[in-house]
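pinning this so it doesn't scroll away 📌
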Amino acid sequence: MQTDTVRTPGMFWGFLGLLTVLRLTLAALLPLTPDEAYYWVWSRHLQMGYFDHPFMVALWIRIGTWIAGDTPLGVRLLGPLSVLPGSWALFHAARLLLPSRSWPLSGFQAVLLLNATLMLGLGAATMTPDTPLVFFVSVALYAIGKAVTLPTNKALGWWLLTGMLLGLAFDSKYTAVLIGFGLGGAVVFSPAWRKQPGPWLAIPVLLATISPVLYWNATHHWASLLKQGGRAGDWHPARAIQFQSELFGGQIGLATPLIFGLFVIGLWACFKRNILLVWLGALPLAVFIFHAFGDRVQANWPAVVYPVLALAAVEAGRRIRWAAASGFVVTALVCLQAAFAFLPIPPAKDPVQRQTAGWPEFDQKLERLAVAQGATVLMAEDYGLASQLAFNQGNSGLSVFGTDRRWELFRLPAARGEKGLRVEEIHHIPSPLPMDVLCRESQRRTVRCYQMTVVENPLGVQLPRHS
């Protein structure tokens, strides 16, 4: 028995190490998505905030590309590497936040469930704001566990660390504020925690940690906070059934079906056994569900609560073997399809190929056309397309401009009076293809096509430069 007890942790962490190697390999194989290329553009011009999100994803990419270069692996490097320390933190958070469950088994189960979700399985091999968000939330759960279980005289430092970690999660993505509100609700309604100085002293630490993002917004007309907060102003209750279906369907897909079932059962069990996890998990989910009565909730938004749900699922005391195994199988199939497109899905309908396939060949054709037309500038209004062009044309000598208003928030060198080539995606593909239409292809099948238009003195105004 003692031998098995010693061997099991080694096998478990060895398995997570193997997963890390596989995720790093996938990160190197997959071309960047348009959003990843967009965040890479941010990393070339580090700021305290951006139009769409806070700065953390840009900082992580900047560190990764400093180590591994401006490559897909460099952009994503910190994603797979962050899962191991994040899993370690969640493993120990289970000991502190699940006192009714047997540890270390509870820690193993929580970590396996989170790693088996498609959200983390594929998401850790890509780089989005959710990547650092999930890491900082996982570590924050460990700090919260320490803060609520230690005596008052020993808990202060952990409360302060909790404030800093939740602030760093906010610096990753604004949805982290929901975890903060959940923790605040738990403190206010708990006399024992409410009387401690730690929770209240954690607030200025949190505010100091998020101050760079707040300062950037204050000096940029609150552009980012208004953009994200403005979503609440869109309200279409007649489409509530559609939005709710999309929300729950997206979570079934990202969690994988059996793990999603355990998440639901576990959160329900916490209403009787673990009120802290209810505050941390149910409050954010209630916000998303309420929002989905009048507007779309993107499938990745609830990622902020996945580490909490992994702990809640263990609290239910159900067996997780088949749920975790099915999650790893689904994730493996999706990753194999993303890397090798082994299923005969038309590229235009495959969500991964639609975003990533055929860019190197397309950029070579685009460069030749630009040279033939005497153009030195590539222009695109769509931020994802402009970002892909900037990433892939880095060595061509062509400048890339984004004409969407969000680029105005980059204080970069500008140029005017140059001959440009405007690149616009077209949805109706003419046959035969004219000379000014270029297409991305995968396995000799068309993915997307783009109209090229020569522009003299592009827009006649100064435009931000991306290269």
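📌 and the second one:
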Amino acid sequence: MTNKARLSLFAPLLLTGCSDYQWGWYVLDPSTQQGRTNLTFLMNGFGDTIAVSLLSMVFAMLLGFAIALPALSSYAPLRWVNRVYVESIRSIPVLVLLLWVYYGMPTLLDVSLNHFWAGVIALSIAESAFMAEVFRGGIQAISRGQHEAAESLGLSYWSKMRLVIFPQAFRQILPPLGNQFVYILKMSSLVSVIGLSDLTRRANELVVNEYLPLEIYTFLVLEYLVLILVVSQAVRWMEKRIAIPSH
């Protein structure tokens, strides 16, 4: 098939992107009642987005730390448990896990589960595998001499981890933790498919009402951009606060 023939096949697809779309920024114009109402409706989604992301981050860190500890054990079966969990969870798409938690977990455990907690549970489980690897790498980065020094002081395993190893490892893992929180913020947009009224869900609902998708989704992009820039700056500030002075 010639290049000209190939182009003729894809011409209809290419031309669909050159539609006579009429931009209507009035839909988000803060000087009008309609614009103010729409902007308020969109920005009210910040609450659910931030709440589900923060809770998922906390639970993922706790679960990830618990999963990381077996990887540090000298007992092979414990290390296998860690690898099976991490590789299994990382292999499941977040959206698939979210749908299974929302629809499958209530049936399996005979419990009621609302949109919010289904999102928190699914994101926590999905992120815990990555957190486990972050914790494992940070702890293993601490030199063996630090472990031996703590043991020579007569500290128990948990005291050694709490007082000596983990405070040093935290400096190592803070940047990856910040990256993972940004990842959770972006993945939280998936909870819109199960009905949680987050930023993405509200944007989709407004598109249905106003029929102006490009304006509304552009504003959605800006919302996530501002949110993630704030988180990134906060992480950098924390890094500077806990950094060891070079002199």
